[in-house]
């Protein structure tokens, strides 16, 4: 597979990912206009825990599937991994349902607004189960290079979710008010978050149903010896994933509730809502990262079989970082426009964390790109150690900074942890699987993007719009556009030959 093929697959994966993320993205202002601050904080808290559960439910089997499908009988790997996930998902789902009452009555359950609403918990459990059961079918499509079907199924699930959100939260209240009492009464707002969870569960269920023809064609054979090897490879990835989630979502799930001063639970829910709403603005950079991972992971495993793949990895990293830098500037320079997404003025206060979180996600994206070395060399335990170190650091920094700086401390801790995680992974990778990354260029491109943002922010705060740095005014917009264009010109001059080699755009460059 060439870079042209990788680009083609990433476009499809990117399209499906971007469309699905954007659809979810626009659900956020929809929710912000309907839910109270506390309710949005409760929902954000619940969704912060779901990634942890997904890691446990899939236990690295997706990556193990990619690895062993290239080394063993593909049909046996597919059957074994699917049967393993099916049995484990059913077992864990039953266990979680049995633990329903203790969970919803705990402090975490009360913070998430689950106490008194056992149905909410049930919806979330089945949502996670359905997502776990689609992990291998989605991985199979990626391995077989079928991005169009991948995109169709992914988007169909999201569209279903949105349909039910609109039906329950917009249409049902209007129908009920006009006398149609066969629909649920959602005018009071007490059960709105529950119907959001139900909508997501129905979207995941539709996704699973669309995979049934593909699942039926699986060779239902369980190879115990193969399964042991796959689990041995995958188990450290659980630690990698869990520790990674400490940085990604634990700030909303646990750090902020625990380390914010005071005991007012409602006030903490509102801070979580403020933080989570602004965190969503950083999703614009994570869209590209996720799309890249979906296309790149199977590509990297296939490329490893060719001669000297390291040069290809270095080239991909450079292009990847350039794109991340452009996206960082695209969001951070135009926050006066992106604030429209937040709708409610209460949430504007938190916009100062957005550039910090964008930079954090840039470091995370680079880290994901670097992790290929321990996946290719079967040193997944090393990856686990790296993430455990940064997870411990995340705990210390949040414990230190949140009481002093509030939610800004959580954002800053996220950025520092991702930076250190990226650096450690790079250093160890160069030891065990050297890749000739263009380090001076990478540092220059990232550093210049950050400098441009802070120069613009200083100009805005002191000269252009000192009374309101997020006001949508012509002069700040013009300066932001000029700086963005100047950065683009600099990158083009530095990488003209590289861009000329790319598919599609290369033929327009002389």
From TrEMBL:
What species is this protein from? Answer: Chitinophaga nivalis
Q: What is its main location?
A: membrane
The protein's name in its UniProt record: Polysaccharide biosynthesis C-terminal domain-containing protein
Alphabetically sorted, this entry's keywords are: Cell membrane, Membrane, Transmembrane, Transmembrane helix
Query: Where is it located?
Result: Cell membrane
Its record classes its membrane topology as:
Multi-pass membrane protein
**Does Transmembrane show up as a keyword for this record?**
yes
| InterPro entries reported for this sequence | Poly_Biosynth_Transport, Polysacc_synth
Superkingdom in the source lineage = Bacteria
Q: What stretches pass through the bilayer?
A: 12-34, 46-65, 77-99, 119-139, 151-176, 196-212, 233-255, 275-295, 316-341, 353-370, 382-401, 407-429, 441-459, 471-492
One family name in Pfam for this protein: Polysacc_synt
């Amino acid at each position: 597979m060439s870079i042209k093929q990788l680009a083609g697959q990433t476009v499809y994966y990117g399209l499906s990912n971007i469309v699905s993320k954007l659809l979810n993205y626009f659900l956020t202002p929809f929710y912000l206009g309907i839910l109270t601050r506390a309710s949005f904080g409760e929902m954000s808290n619940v969704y912060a825990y779901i990634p942890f559960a997904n890691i446990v439910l899939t236990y690295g089997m997706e990556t193990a599937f990619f690895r062993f499908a290239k080394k063993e009988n593909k049909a046996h790997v597919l059957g074994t991994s699917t049967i393993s996930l099916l049995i484990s998902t059913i077992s864990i789902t039953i266990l979680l349902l049995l633990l329903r009452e203790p969970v919803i009555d705990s402090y975490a359950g009360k913070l998430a607004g689950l106490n008194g609403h056992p149905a909410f918990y049930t919806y979330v459990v089945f949502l996670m189960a359905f997502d776990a059961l689609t992990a291998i079918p989605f991985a199979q499509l990626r391995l077989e290079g079928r991005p169009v079907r991948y995109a169709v199924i992914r988007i169909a699930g999201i569209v279903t979710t949105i349909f039910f959100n609109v039906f329950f939260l917009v249409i049902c209240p209007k129908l009920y008010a006009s006398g149609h009492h066969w629909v649920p009464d959602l005018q009071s707002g007490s059960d709105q978050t529950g119907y959001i969870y139900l909508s997501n569960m129905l979207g995941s269920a539709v996704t699973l149903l669309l995979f049934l023809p593909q699942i039926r064609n699986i060779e239902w054979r369980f190879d115990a010896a193969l399964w042991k090897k796959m689990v041995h490879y995958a188990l450290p990835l659980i630690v990698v994933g869990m520790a990674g989630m400490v940085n990604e979502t634990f700030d909303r799930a646990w750090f902020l509730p625990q380390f914010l001063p005071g005991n007012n639970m409602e006030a903490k829910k509102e801070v979580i809502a403020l933080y989570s709403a602004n965190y969503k603005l950083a999703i614009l950079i994570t869209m590209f990262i996720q799309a890249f991972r979906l296309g790149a992971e199977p590509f990297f495993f296939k490329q490893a079989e060719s001669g000297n793949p390291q040069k290809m990895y270095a080239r991909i990293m450079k292009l990847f970082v350039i794109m991340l830098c452009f996206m960082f500037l695209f969001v951070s320079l135009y926050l006066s426009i992106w604030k429209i997404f937040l709708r409610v003025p209460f949430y504007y206060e938190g916009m100062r964390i957005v550039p910090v979180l964008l930079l954090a996600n840039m470091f995370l994206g680079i880290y994901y790109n670097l992790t290929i070395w321990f996946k290719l060399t079967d040193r997944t335990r090393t990856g686990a150690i790296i993430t455990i170190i940064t997870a411990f650091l995340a705990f210390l920094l949040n414990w230190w900074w949140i009481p002093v700086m509030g939610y800004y401390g959580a954002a800053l801790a996220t950025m520092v942890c991702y930076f250190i995680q990226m650096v450690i992974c790079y250093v160890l990778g160069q030891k065990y699987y050297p890749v000739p990354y263009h380090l001076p260029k990478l540092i220059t491109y990232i550093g210049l993007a950050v400098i441009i943002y802070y120069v613009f922010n200083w100009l805005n705060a002191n000269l252009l719009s000192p009374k309101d740095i997020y006001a949508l005014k012509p002069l700040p917009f013009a300066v932001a556009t000029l700086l963005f264009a100047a950065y683009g010109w600099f990158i083009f001059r530095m990488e003209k030959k590289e861009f000329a080699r790319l598919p599609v755009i290369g033929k327009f460059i002389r």
